[in-house]
Amino acid sequence: MPPRAHQPRRRDALFSRAGRSSGYRVGQYGSMSQPHSLPDNDPRPVPPEPPLPSDCCDSGCDPCVNDSYSDELQLYRERLAKWLARHPGEA
């Protein structure tokens, strides 16, 4: 049975009507001969923005915006440590 008209076929899902790719390119992050190479774009992690004092309502919310910030800050520190390990001269 042919596909229904409202369901795109696989080729239609990969290419737009103009024939352009949806954005994914084979080999976008290096050749197959270098599977463990880093992508060209490996930016330094950006620290989370701290909440304003007025962001906390002091009513004991779970999670509080300050708790969420603390979790995000810990994740940032972990990501930064991994990034610095990949870029030892950037400290």
From TrEMBL:
<dbReference type="Pfam" id="PF09791">
    <property type="entry name" value="Oxidored-like"/>
</dbReference>
<feature type="domain" description="Oxidoreductase-like">
    <location>
        <begin position="46"/>
        <end position="83"/>
    </location>
</feature>
<feature type="region of interest" description="Disordered">
    <location>
        <begin position="1"/>
        <end position="56"/>
    </location>
</feature>
<protein>
    <recommendedName>
        <fullName>Oxidoreductase-like domain-containing protein</fullName>
    </recommendedName>
</protein>
<dbReference type="InterPro" id="IPR019180">
    <property type="entry name" value="Oxidoreductase-like_N"/>
</dbReference>
<dbReference type="InterPro" id="IPR039251">
    <property type="entry name" value="OXLD1"/>
</dbReference>
<feature type="compositionally biased region" description="Pro residues">
    <location>
        <begin position="44"/>
        <end position="53"/>
    </location>
</feature>
